[in-house]
Amino acid sequence: xxxxxxxxxxxxxxxxxxxxxxxxxxxxxxxxxxxxxxxxxxxxxxxxxxxxxxxxxxxxxxxxxxxxxxxxxxxx
Length: 76
Fold this sequence. Notes:
Layout: H1 2-18, H2 21-52, H3 56-72
């Protein structure tokens, strides 16, 4: 998912430099799917935390996944 966000940023910069309005609209439409993935990932992590009560390494893995994506992810 991080690669998808990075690709979106690269496309956005290209559209900005070329004044490509159509390309910008495509990026905005794809951003909706990125936001859905963000919500899905967050829900999965919350379910794992609530239902399985992970400890130690598993807990660190889940929280790291949430933190790393939030650092790369988009604003909702």
